[in-house]
Every structure is written in structure tokens, then in C-alpha cells.
Amino acid sequence: MIMRELIHRDSLISLDGIWKLDGKDIIVPYAPESKKSGYEGEILDEMTYTRSFKRPLMQEGKRLILHFGAIDQIADVYVNGIFMIHHEDGYLPFSIDISDVLKDDNVIEVKCRDSLDKDYPYGKQSKDPKGMWYTAVSFIWQSVYLEIVPADHIKDLKIKSTMDKVDITLDAVREYELIIDEIKYSKKFITDKIKIDFVAEGLPIHLWDLDDPYLYHFKIKTKDDEISSYFALREFKIKKINDYERFTLNDKPIFLCGLLDQGYYGDALYTASKEDYIRDIRNAKALGFNCLRKHAKVEASAFYEAADELGILVFQDFVNSGDYDFIKDTALPNIGFKRKNDIIPHKKRHDIFMKHAETLRNILGNHPSVIGYTIFNEGWGQFDADRVYEVLKRDDKEHIYDATSGWFKRSKSDLESEHVYFRNKVLRSKGKALMLTECAGYVYSSKKSYGYGSSKDLGAHMQKIEDLYMKMIYPSIALGLCGFIYTQISDVETERNGLYEEDHKTLKVDLSKMISLNRHCHDLFASLTKI
């Protein structure tokens, strides 16, 4: 069972802390490769976690759900020796009702397997980390917790909104009360679908935007259950404005100044706290950026909630599977050779990728900050891109889909998506919304580093960044450029091309200059998109 995000209850019991991994202590939720895990044993492809817990105090008729935030790549879960669930993916949450096997004293056993099998999503993980490939993350790397729920509990919640309407769909028909405290709204329903027209019902409209990320918090109360959640009134679209397709937020043209965010956190590797996410988002906004591209990784729900609360847009990658070849997939495309066979892989990898993509977008669909998805990045694992785009877009008109980010383009995508490194070039839209989805990657570090051009002093480093804006981004805006993604928000291991060091705290660029460069993007864009 996979639960949609933004269903909150007050009955959670954390199981984070000391577990056993093949008999040795490990601190969950940190992966055994991370220093923060405290794990000192050998890391094998197949290993077993164990953890005991006592039956929590529960009223008669209640159920107990066991939640895992993410386990990479394959997990079989047992409770008190009884098999409960088999899960495959590596990046997505899953849950299981364990009520029927509970005792006073209980043992969870999680048999994990992670051989970096490329049939599964694996992102930038490598057993030989260097350059743009990073330390692999095995097994449990997100939180584990219990949740006490009624027998008839709300399992799924789907939210769709515009600037004046919201649709809320539950997993089953129920009798319940919807309460929105901010606007003193309370109404009883017997249905699985709620449609609220704010204009028709005379309700106050407060739009969500980047400077004022207003959220409507609500509760749903049934006879046995009560959950809290939130929604936002906002629309993100592509519209033709003055000869070019442009992005709009709430019908106002918006230019995306974005950062690539790979989600590595130093000694913690993949695992982060909500405080980490809040710091990154505030740091990005302080520099004048309004968008993060979550690259080749899925975060815990706390990241997307922080983005909703703080007001930053998120472009989410589906995590790549399949083989990668540096010459064919990176070196040759960077000098102009951008052709690739777009064949369908064997059925197993195809099915795993499609399940991952469809499940991820269903999980994230409630978040107002999430505006779009990258299907394939630079050809990694790419197959039948036009058909995959059609399948995903068919049931989701609310989000933007970048079918082939960077190169190896096919005919169907919402974007013209370009990656440009090592040089500056003026880009021109050929009809679709044009976005520079990766660029820069400049290194400013005294250590041996991987990147796309390096400087020995801050002045030279800032000159490279200024040239990027002056010679590529600014002139391209006049020719249809809708936004760009700068590589990257922070250093990752030996790839030291971040605006911040690997600690996510130490700034490596001139703050006032970055603010000025980004502000001019918006000013120039505004002058060209007056309606």
C-alpha cells in the first residue's frame, strides 16, 4: 500500500533510532554507507535489519500501519516471523497493516537486497564514486514509523485546484465533515468527491504564489477518523504571450531562475531533515532563485511540504534506470552529436520505470509547489519517449512534462529542453516553451574537483557566472527562453561546482551579484511579456 502525501494524523510512533543490521548496530534512517549511521560492519548486497517494539496502547477496533519512507532497492518485510510485503523501487514510500500479527512484544525483520541493479531506479549512485557519480546508498534511508488508525480510515486523498476552485477526492464514499478553519467553512458530505467553487459560495480567495505561499488548512472528520491536510489556490500553465510560449503562475508571466538540487547531504548522504530542506530553500530564495529541479532523486515528504510552505517551485525528475555511457550519453552530445536509438527495453525495466513514474506523480500530485516532471534526462535509460509522454500526460494535464531533458529529443514534450555546458550560446524557441534545463557547473575550489570549468579566485569565478547571464541567458530571453536551471545548489563529493559548499551553509559566490543577475532576468522578462 502506498499512501498519498498530505494525510496527517496525530497518532505516529517513530521507529527511527538503533536497529540491528546483520547483527551490528545501525542508526535508522541513515544508510550504512553514511557516517551518521554509525554502522561499522561490511556492506553486502543482501542484508537484514531487525528491530523490536512493544504493542502500542490502542483502542479496540484500531489498526496499526507500518510505514517505510524508502528502501533501496528491494525489501521483504516480516513481523514476528510472518511475511508481510515485498517492495521494489528504492525511492518511494510504502506501508502495510500489521494489526493481525501483533503481540505484546514484536520483532520487525527487513530483508534487503541492493546490488545497484540497473533495471531499478538508481540516480547518481555508484560503487566507484567519482566525478558526477556519488556514493551509493543501500537499504533503509528514510524514516520508519507506526501509525494508529481506525479500521475504516482514509487511505488516499487527491487534490486538484485552480485559482478559484478545489476538488478533493477520497478513496471511498463516506459520510464526513470538511472544516476549513481559515475561512470558517464547515460542511457535511456523503460522497467521495468534494467540489468547492469559491466564487459561487462567496468564499475569500487567497492565491498561493512565491512571495505569499498561502495554504488553506483543512480537516476531514468521519465517524471514526480525523485527518488534517492543506491545499492552495494556484494555476501554473504554459501560454503564448507576444509570439512565444511562456510560463504563467496565476495568469501572470513568470521566468524560472532555478537550481539543480541533487539531494546529497554530506555525512548523511541521501538522508535529510526538514530543517535541512528549509535551509536549502531559504538559501536558494535569498540568492534570487525561485525554482529547484530535484535531480535523479526523490525526497521525503518534508521537502515538498517545505517547498509548499516557503514558496518555491519544484521540477521533479523521475529517477533514471538503465545503462549509461559517458561517450555516447554525455561527451558526444555536448559537442553536437545528439542521436540515440529510442528502443523499448526489456519488459522488466520498462514496467519498473513506468510504475515508478506513475506512482511518484500520484504521490506528489497534491503539492502546489510541484509544477512538472522530467521523464528522461540526457538519454539515461531512455525508451519510447513519445509513448511514455502520452501515457503520463493523458491522466495529468495539470503538470508540465519534459520528455527528454537536454538532448535525444523526440516529437512530444511540453518543453524544448536544452543543456549547455562549456560554452555560452544564444538559444531561440522553435515553437514550444524553451527552457535551459542545465547549465554552468563552474568550479570554485582549492581541491581537485569535477565540473565544467574552474577558477582560482572569486573574481574570476563570478566573471564566468556573469558571462553566462550576459552572453546566453539574457539574449535568449528575448528569443523565447522561459527559464534556466543552474548546476548546482551545493557541492556533492568531488563535484565541487555548487553555489554552496557540501555543508549547504558556506556560500561560494557574491551574494549581491547573484541577486542582481537574477533580478535582471525577471525585469527583462517582464518588459517582454507585457500583455
Write up this protein.
By secondary structure, the protein is of the alpha/beta class. 18% of the residues lie in helices and 35% in strands. The protein has helices at 274-286, 301-310, 326-334, 347-364, 385-394, 458-477, 511-528, and strands at 12-14, 17-21, 24-28, 46-54, 62-68, 71-72, 74-79, 82-88, 94-97, 105-113, 125-126, 134-135, 139-140, 144-150, 157-161, 165-180, 185-197, 216-222, 226-231, 236-241, 244-249, 252-253, 256-261, 291-294, 313-317, 370-377, 400-405, 415-420, 433-440, 443-444, 454-455, 481-487. An eight-stranded parallel beta sheet has the order 27-26-25-24-23-32-29-28. Strands 3-2-4-10-7-8 form a six-stranded antiparallel beta sheet, with no helix packed on it. α6 (458-477) packs parallel to α7. It starts with 11 loop residues before the first strand and ends with a helix. The model has no long low-confidence stretch (mean pLDDT 96).
Question: What class do helices, strands and sheet pairing give?
Answer: alpha/beta
C-alpha termini separation? 47 Å
Q: What is the count of DSSP helices, taking H or I runs of 4+ residues?
A: 7
CATH architecture of the largest domain: Alpha-Beta Barrel
CATH class of the largest domain: Alpha Beta
Give the spatial strand order of the biggest sheet: 27-26-25-24-23-32-29-28
Summed over residues and divided by their number, the pLDDT gives a mean of 96
Fold-level CATH name of the largest domain: TIM Barrel
Oligomer: single chain
CATH superfamily of the largest domain: Glycosidases
Tell me how many strands there are: 32
Overall body shape = globular
- Domains (count): 3
Question: What would you report as the Rg, rounded to the nearest angstrom?
Answer: 23 Å
Quote the beta fraction: 25-35%
Spans with pLDDT under 50 lasting ≥5 residues? Answer: none
